[in-house]
Please model this.
Amino acid sequence: MSTIQQSIDVEVPVRTAYNQWTQFESFPQFMSGVESITQLDDKHLHWVTSIAGVEREFDAEITEQHPDERVAWASTGGDAKHAGVVTFHRLDDTTSRVMVQIDWEPSGLVEKVGSAVNVDDHRVKGDLTRFKEFIEGRGHESGAWRGDVDAPS
Model:
């Protein structure tokens, strides 16, 4: 199992950063390799990715979500095995820290080599940099979902 941890400070209030992150279908605009995400309902997503020539389709479930605090997920179908959490931290009225942790199981030679040389860390760092540019460039979120999803007991 590989673990990726990255963070970035964004010049928007924590509410704005969180609200934008809940707009999963916008992820292809700033996440490299994400072709599409379809939100099936409040807790279920269908992803299509193409990374380093490896195409994948998988489903993921939001396992915990609390406005302005966190969004956690786990894959539920397909051949991509991963889980993660994004947390949002207020630094001041206009600045937030977005922290990402992803645990995933590389499969195949390309993914295993990429993970060994930290390509996955660099990809997530790049995605966060593009998220920063995306949200700061807009200055406001494109939408929001403010519902709660409690962690499984």
